[in-house]
Amino acid sequence: MADLDNKDQTEMDPADMEDVEEVEEEETGEDNSKARQLTMQMMQNPQILAALQERLDGLVGSPSGYMESLPKVVKRRVNALKNLQVKCAHIEAKFYEEVHELERKYAALYQPLFDKRSDIVRAAYEPTDEECEWKQDEEEELTVSKQEEMKEKAKVEEEKKDEEKEDPKGIPEFWLTVFKNVDLLSEMLQEHDEPILKHLLDIKVKFSDAGQPMSFTLEFHFEPNDFFTQTVLTKTYKMRSEPDESDPFSFDGPEIMGCTGCTIDWSKGKNVTLKTIKKKQKHKGRGTVRTVTKTVPNDSFFNFFSPPEVPETGELDEDSEAVLAADFEIGHFIRERIVPRAVLYFTGEAIEDDDDDYDEEGEEADDEEGEEEADEENDPDYEPKV
Prior knowledge:
The protein is an alpha+beta fold. 53% of the residues lie in helices and 13% in strands. It contains 13 helices and 6 strands.
């Protein structure tokens, strides 16, 4: 009987076992949920993220230990592969040099079209009816009768407008609108910049001549105005397309090494890159108060033409490095996107294309989140949050 009693004590009813398993699963689920919440909180903490990033940066390029474990004869062959990789980097550099030459060649083919665009914008040329015809997308196509009806209605409305006010010349505020439509550029704009940019007629890209060091210049063409005496402001970016001898594997195409702006000859009282402030100072001994006027830098798009100078040592403080990094990004964007596709940034179509690229990533994230929610709902132990 004693043995039987002990057996009853050591063995457990299967139903009780299921209850224990369910409790354990519930506890495990709660622990996982708490862990996820804690992880999310940590990832939202900027200090923790910065510490993690610093740690990860320290790991980049550090040996994993695998190479050290290889036999000497294998390490020798790996070194041969790395030497081949260096040669590949030098060939890649030559490839980009030839790409630059192609850019120079095709820039000459694009330029007549860009010149005509400029003529239309500044009302130096009025396009013909044929040039103004634009074929709509198939989805937007209307019946012939509807099109004629709309054309007639538009014609009547235009005639009324012509009677009410003078017909605008060219495309007013074309480049200012482009700048305001692009986040990267609109962030630089201040309210006091806008009256000046209304006088901007064109932006051109000029590539360095054949045989010269790789570079490109952005030319901002203005009509005569009351703000400065020049009609052209320039910004030149110097580039390099060769692997760094000390780190050849980091080569990833041409990089901007520095840039040079221009001195703007501001009219008296029109320099928007400076502002005057007044400060009151109290004399320690006599207690008298005087007002001191000081001129200090002012936020403006036109600071773009006065970038920090890169010293010969190439070393910059953090603030200057950040300014130059942003400057290089802006210069590259103007060259690659704004100048070739200006009309699409004016209409907003290019911006929609850019947004679509980001939306795709967002949709993928939403899909993953949706799948996670579906999994939770299918879980019999899932309890919705109230």
